[in-house]
Amino acid sequence: MGAQIPESDQIKQLKEFLGTDNKLTEICFLDCVKTAQQILQECNIQQNEALAAKAGLLGQP
What we know:
Blueprint: H1 7-54
């Protein structure tokens, strides 16, 4: 059988893994939030343009 990894090394590896996982999760979450904000902003712009067009405000000086 293979050599066992000392418990202190196992704990160190687990901490490194959890740290990496945490960073990746944070990056993905922030990217998702940014994308959602962009989509909402685009929807708001389109809604405002549609309302302005209905009110006859677009294309007027």
